[in-house]
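# nightly structure sweep
# worker-07 picked up a monomer target from the shared queue
# config: single-sequence mode, recycle default, output format = C-alpha cells
# input follows
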Amino acid sequence: MGGLKSVGKAPISAAELRCQTMLRPAVHAVLLAAALLAGCDMLGIESPEKVAAAREAEGKAVGSACRHAGRAIEDCYTLNRRIDKAAIFAGWRDMNDYMRENKIDTVPPVLLAQAPRPAPEPKPEPKADAKIDAKAADAKAAYVEVEKAIAKPRPKDTKAAHAS
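# output follows
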C-alpha cells in the first residue's frame, strides 16, 4: 500500500494527508478571526485613537465658538469644564486668527438672560376631617398616660416584703 493517489500527481502519504486536514481548521479559524476583527468598526466599537481625536475636535469647536461669540478664554474654560483646555485654546486661537485675517466681528449671543423666577407660594396643608383629628388626639393622650404610668415608681409590695 503505497498511499493515496491523486489524479495527475504523485501519491499523497498518510502523514501529508494528516497535516493538510489539521491545517484546514486552523486556516479557517484565522480567516474567521480576521473577518470578525475587521468588522469591529462596523459594530461601533471605537478605538482610543478615535475617541481622542473626537475629544480634540470637540474642544476645538467649543473654543472657536467661544471666540466667535466674543467670550474670553477663561470664561470658555469655566463654562466647559469637562473639555480639555488645550483643545479649547487651540480652537479659540485658530478662530481668533481667522477672524483677524477676514475682518470678522464677534457675534454676541442672542439668548436673553433668564430672569430669576419668583419662589412658588407654599401650598396650604389640606385640613383633615374633624373625626380623624379627634381620634389622633385621643390616641396621643392615651400614649402620654401610658408613658406616665411606666415612668412612675411602683410602691413596694408590703406582703411580699414581710414574707421573706
